[in-house]
Amino acid sequence: MTVKPEILKITNTAKSRLFNVEEIELRFSNGAERTYERLANRGHGAVMIIPITENGDVLLIREYAVGIEDYTLTLPKGLIDPGEDEHTAADRELKEEAGFGSNRLHTLKVMTSAPNYMGHAVTAVVAQDLYPCRLEGDEPEEMEVVRWPLDKLEQLVADPDFTEARAIAALYMVKDFLAKQSSKSD
Amino acid sequence: MTVKPEILKITNTAKSRLFNVEEIELRFSNGAERTYERLANRGHGAVMIIPITENGDVLLIREYAVGIEDYTLTLPKGLIDPGEDEHTAADRELKEEAGFGSNRLHTLKVMTSAPNYMGHAVTAVVAQDLYPCRLEGDEPEEMEVVRWPLDKLEQLVADPDFTEARAIAALYMVKDFLAKQSSKSD
Hints:
- The structure is a homodimer.
- By secondary structure, the first copy, chain A, is an alpha+beta fold.
- Chain A contains three helices and ten strands, in the order E-E-E-E-E-E-E-H-E-E-E-H-H.
- The first copy, chain A, has two domains: about 5-40, no CATH class; about 45-185, Alpha-Beta Complex (Nucleoside Triphosphate Pyrophosphohydrolase), CATH 3.90.79.10.
- In chain A, strand 8 (about 100-110) and strand 9 form a beta hairpin.
């Protein structure tokens, strides 16, 4: 059993509208002391949705990502609103970003993005039994929906427009999930 | 061809030792305007190393992640130092964090973590032909190295101590890479 470092002090060092930076002084169990910075958690978590069509294609979206100043292929995702559970949030974001609702949602995995400097987690939710339904969100423009056959996942992973680690991980996990689901129904 | 939004203005809104927050005013091609925040890029990028032993196991590390205030299973990783290329940085981090060097490095993929609010990218590098070699890094304590058979990847992905999306993505990609490598050598 590893003994966790002792947190000696937490200080807020910078704050903007979205981000809150904390400085943390730690003492490790061997006596070593370090001061780290991290982004403080906010909100109620986030969901990433893997929408799967009847014939086993995944619905990707192409959206503008200001961090890389370019359009990128990824999966629908968004913050969980106060009072929502993960599946309600997943269904709402899917309607806002891809124009589909889902009658069959299943949680795959809670993933972190960069646990060394932020606590942010996203829950990967597979969405099946889809039906057309669009909700107005706060998106500045309608997102392009790109249908991709899951048996061509390797080509997608090789595409330089598809880089988001959480989406890569989610699609591989969904392949395992669907293989298990189909072996159960055989 | 999608026309990128026009960047109207970039303002620095908060700054700490590690983080630099920018506010960006954008006008999308349909005329919609939005103001977003993002973390500015810094440094020379980062590498994540997937060390593969002779018999096909992966070497994971268990390290303390202050963002989640807990120990986590992940892959060795770190920032690229000025003047280093990706493979030099990968080999150095592998020596510092896992106590191994590699004679055979191959770049798998450049991954982003959260392109909607940061540009940070990490290059996944597979390391083979390993030999014991430890370099002193700036780690506060020696990291535990955990050997995991890649054919039990599904059990690892189900482990709540293994959450980092970039590491999940990297291990699935390395499985594809090794399958191709072994089919070539047959």
